Amino acid sequence: MSNANNNEEAQLHAALADDVVAMDETNSVGHANEIVARQFDAYAAIDQGLVEGMNRVGKLFEQEEYFIPELLLSSDAMYAALDVLKPHIRRADGDHKPKVVFGVVEGDTHDIGKNLVKIMADSSGYEVIDLGRDVPPQKFVDEAVAVGASCIAISTLMTTTMDAMAEVVTILQKLNLREKFKVIVGGGPISPAFAEKIGADGYAPSAPTAVKLLNKLLAPPASA
Amino acid sequence: MAELTPNERARRLAAGAGADRLPCVPIVGNTAARVIGCRVRELRYDAALLANAQVAAYREFGYDNIRIFTDLYTSAEAMGAKVYAPADETAYLALPAIQEPGQIDTLRPADPQRDGILPLQLEALRRALDAVGDEVPVTAALTGPFTVASFLVGAETLTRLVLRAPSAARRLCDVALETTLRLAAAIMDSGGTPSLTDAMSSSTVISPRTFEQFSLPGLRTLVEYIHGRGKKVTLHICGKTQPIWPLMVATGADCLSLDNDASLATAKTAVGDRVKLMGNVHPAAVMLQGTPLTVRAAVREVVAAAGDSPKGLIVASGCSLPTETPFENIRAMLDAVREIGFPVNRENLPETHALAGKIPNSKFQVNRNTQIPNSKPTLNYPGAPRHPFTEGELAHARKFAVREESTRTHTNPFPTCSRVSDSPSVKGWPRSGRGSSAFDAAAHETPNHPGAAGEGAV
Ligand code: B12
Ligand SMILES: [Zn+2]
In terms of domains, do A117 and A209 share one? Predict the structure, then answer.
């Protein structure tokens, strides 16, 4: 590939990232189509364009420049372009996405935070199996076994439902499955100390840090 | 001084005549079921029982305000949303009233005398007033229009609409406002006071700019209407609120009820000269999980932080109490306030926060172009009361907004937002199966986010 081509590819990556940050679905799809038409590498466009854009969005969220509406629209722009690029990812890349079984514990129906973590993990190359809200502890375990997950992720915003998180770990231990899955926890009242106390593998305070935590605990995913 | 009734206490404090103690409101919601030994769901469908429970809880603990409340969804339910009420837990939203934004124009404002369980809530209010209205203010929770709108279409759909299709979002907020105005009217016709609660307007969820555009106009209309009928009103928003304190003040509310994500010492400095403050003992970490000793310590911190707030303080929980909050902790809250007495003796209170004295630095600046709406509330159902506020009151509100602006510079922290236009195509709606569809499809929860303390207490 020529230098000129390299340069144009890099510019398209930058444009994709900007589209995501600007919540601009029309442009993100347009730029993704250009990537495909020019036969540039789809995986690189996801990684250096879309994921880069979502990372910037995550930072803006942490800095309280972006709020939930902005985050959701950015993720719409990201998903729309992802739909265009996905079929063009070279095969081997698409395969080994670590699976994460994710849900909000029983008794709790706050799901905005869970959904944001899911979006960021999705865009960072994990396959997230979303169990929704009000999920009984046993169901986390059953699903993780059924899909061959690498990780169980649990969210709650209520102090009154934190204990259900511990129960997931207890069930895993009882079934001799604890070593098979990483377990991570998060949400308002959760702390690193609580995560440690219940025997989880990790805690993260936000969606971007949740992805970093996944990256640390699981081998970095091969692709998006 | 002998223990005053809440009404006497409020009157004396308002007149600067001194009192036995600060007002205190542990925000008791469905914990009232535990006081009379019934199940939470029974309160939702039995007006006499709901009134009995709330009156019994007031008598048990002696706090300064009764609030008729079962859950946040009563207005949305009366407009067609589906609520699920577990036998012994707070109800939650099972399904929004409409499944896609295209149906917004099919929504009709509710009739509080007829729709959903609103008639039961009004009856409970009247019964409680009959029983103890001469000694304690009785309020009824009124979920704010933006939060009602989120239950009508699904929280995630609404948060997308505000940026993608602002005019559709506005129509939705308007029809929610109409319902809340009618309910406010019915509450006041019954002799009670509305108590505003608006969780989705939190800065934990939406930006200050979105608040300004979509939450503020409706809240301001409601507050103007309530004031026009001679009542004072409290506005409760949980989660982060510091960036919107000036805007919460601009609603005209008399009292801001803040939760533990807010610093009352900072709020005192920022807005304590314009509104009464209410808060903010942690409802879960302290009230539910703490002991009488930790409750006492938390109360003393609250009073140290804002006991001298110029417009007054109501010692309260930051949000409504979890149903299973131990009675001894609720008692401990009242005891701690009694022990501190009035006027507040600062000597044996903990050191005030280092923050006190500093103006919080919010990234959001009040917009120079903020308009105080000229429009008056439209109560256009048969027999609606005439809205009674005067040009003078509106002029006052406008002057206030100007004062707000002149002390602040205008910056736009969301330059990119301007690129999202109200595109008529509203492409890709609704976006199901994406990101987070569970959110839209069914439910957003069950809350209890209480408003609280209304008139007398304010
Ligand atoms: C919006 C809101 C609501 C909305 C929820 C809409 C929805 N679909 O989710 C409504 C109005 C419906 C609601 C209802 C209720 N609410 Co509410 N609500 C809030 C509020 C204001 C904001 C929550 C939010 O969305 N935050 C934004 C998200 C993005 O943040 P987040 O969830 O923390 O997620 C981030 C991180 O924590 C992390 N993360 C999240 N999950 C995970 C998981 C993993 C594995 C990792 C690594 C990271 C991670 O990443 C996320 C992104 O950065 C909070 C106030 C507050 N202080 O938070 C109260 C709050 C959470 N609610 C509370 C309560 C009590 C209730 C109700 C029970 C009220 C009632 N009594 O009826 C009901 C819930 C009923 C039920 N059984 O579920 C309390 C909880 C108290 C407690 N500690 O127990 C709070 C704290 C308010 C308070 N001060 O008391 N609520
Ligand atoms: Zn609250």
Answer: yes
Which of A67, A82, A124 is the best residue to mutate to test the B interface, defined by the most B CB atoms within 10 Å of its own CB? A67
Q: Per-residue pLDDT tens for B388-438? A: 333 443 343 333 333 333 322 222 222 222 222 333 333 333 333 333 332
Quote the pLDDT of residue A3: 75
A46 with A113, same domain: the answer is no
Does A53 lie in the same domain as A127?
no
Q: How many CB pairs under 8 A join A and B?
A: 106
Ligand nearest to the CA of A116: 1
Q: pTM of the predicted model, to two decimals?
A: 0.82
Query: In order of start, what are the domains of chain B with their CATH numbers?
Result: 22-353 (3.20.20.210)
A38 and A142 share one domain: no
pLDDT tens-digit profile of B67-108?
Answer: 999 999 999 999 999 999 999 989 989 999 999 999 999 999
Weakest-pLDDT range from A110-114, B212-216, B307-311: A110-114
Question: Same domain, yes or no, for A36 and A104?
Answer: no
Overall number of domains in chain A: 2
The full DSSP string for chain A is --HHHHHHHHHHHHHHHHHHHTT-HHHHHHHHHHHHHTT--HHHHIIIIIIHHHHHHHHHHHTTSS-HHHHHHHHHHHHHHHHHHGGGS-HHHHH-PPEEEEEEBTT----HHHHHHHHHHHHTT-EEEE--SSB-HHHHHHHHHHHT-SEEEEE---GGGTHHHHHHHHHHHHTT-GGG-EEEEESTT--HHHHHHTT-SEE-SSHHHHHHHHHHHSPPPS--
- What is the ipTM for the molecules in this complex? 0.82
In a domain? residue A222: no
Give A107→chain B minimum CA distance, Å. Answer: 9
Question: Within a domain: residue A93?
Answer: no
